């Protein structure tokens, strides 16, 4: 397939999970890819898998919370490929805890990546997207529609992404730039192996039932299809689509189900049993 032949896609949070899978899928469909994340070794490994010769891929360490990192990355992308057609704001992490057990600084740390990092990504590449009548893709969550007990920091950040996409869709339409809000359900990634300091624990077991998980590769295929079609929103997983449907049309029913079934965010994972 070559739906994106010679287009240039810039992806944040590209060192693992959805970001890495998107890089592979977009490259498979003909795109040149710019991989941004903090973990340089991971980026280089993924870049080598996509194109050992390095002609169609640029991997660059980047922290979306640091001033100047994204501007520098965008400059390198323009230097190598001449343009940017697709921007995927994917970098993000999750922080758990009841409100009374958290502090404002906890929320602030999460929002620096999940909200302000997305805004910084947009500001660094917006002129490029206007020039190419490109595609802006924001990776959000089904939790942009429903917040569970113990998950307010993450859900707040994703509610903000839904609002941002709604505004940007209207603002950028005259420039021919599409905005796609992506709402995955539970994806099999490392996000639930991160503690509240954003530190990865390889020995933590995913607390989500395998029956509810979708692979990053399957997720990427659906996202790329939505990008190609310039969809305004794509909800991923059947149960995610059902949750959004109920929330939109019968919010009282969703609240009743959550309360009756005592549904809350999964607690901190346990170490994997050896």
Describe the structure.
The chain has helices at 17-28, 40-50, 69-81, 104-114, 116-132, 152-172, 216-229, 238-249, 251-261, and strands at 8-12, 32-37, 57-61, 86-89, 135-139, 178-184, 233-236. It has 274 residues and is an alpha/beta fold. It has a single domain, classed as NAD(P)-binding Rossmann-like Domain (Rossmann fold, 3-Layer(aba) Sandwich), CATH 3.40.50.720. It has a seven-stranded parallel beta sheet, with helices on both faces. α1 links the parallel β1 and β2. Residues 268-274 have low confidence and may be disordered.
How many individual β-strands? 7
Can you tell me the CATH architecture?
Answer: 3-Layer(aba) Sandwich
- Class inferred from helices and paired strands: alpha/beta
Could you give a short account of the major beta sheet? 7 strands, parallel
CATH superfamily: NAD(P)-binding Rossmann-like Domain
The CATH class name reads: Alpha Beta
Global mean pLDDT: 90
First-to-last CA distance = 42 Å
The total tally of domains equals: 1
Question: What is the third-level CATH name, the topology?
Answer: Rossmann fold
Give the strand line-up of the largest sheet.
Answer: 3-2-1-4-5-6-7
Estimate the helix proportion, in percent.
Answer: 40-55%
Low-confidence stretches: 268-274
Number of helices: 9
Radius of gyration: 18 Å
Task: Estimate the strand proportion.
Answer: 5-15%
């Amino acid at each position: 397939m070559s739906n994106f032949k010679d287009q240039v896609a810039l992806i944040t949070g590209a060192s693992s999970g959805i970001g890495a899978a998107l890089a592979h899928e977009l490259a498979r469909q003909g795109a040149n890819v710019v991989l941004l994340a903090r973990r340089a070794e991971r980026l280089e490994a993924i870049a080598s898998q996509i194109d050992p010769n390095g002609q169609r891929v640029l991997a660059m360490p980047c922290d979306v919370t640091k001033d100047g990192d994204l501007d520098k990355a965008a400059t390198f992308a323009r230097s190598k490929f001449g343009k940017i057609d697709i921007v995927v704001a994917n970098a993000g992490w999750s922080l758990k805890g009841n409100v009374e057990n958290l502090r404002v600084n906890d929320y602030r740390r999460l929002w620096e990546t999940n909200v302000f990092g997305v805004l910084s990504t947009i500001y660094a590449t917006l002129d490029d997207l206007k020039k190419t009548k490109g595609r802006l893709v924001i990776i959000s969550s089904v939790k942009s529609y429903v917040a569970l007990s113990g998950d307010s920091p993450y859900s707040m950040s994703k509610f903000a992404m839904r609002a941002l996409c709604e505004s940007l869709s209207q603002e950028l339409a005259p420039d021919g730039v599409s905005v796609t809000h992506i709402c995955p359900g539970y994806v099999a990634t490392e996000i639930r192996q991160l503690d509240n300091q954003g530190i990865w624990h390889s020995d933590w077991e995913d607390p989500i039932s395998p029956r509810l998980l979708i692979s990053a590769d399957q997720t990427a295929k659906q996202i790329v299809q939505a990008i190609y079609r310039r969809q305004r929103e794509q909800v991923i997983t059947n149960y995610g689509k059902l949750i959004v449907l109920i929330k939109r049309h019968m919010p009282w029913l969703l609240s009743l189900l959550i309360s009756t079934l005592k549904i809350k965010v999964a607690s901190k994972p346990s170490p994997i049993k050896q």
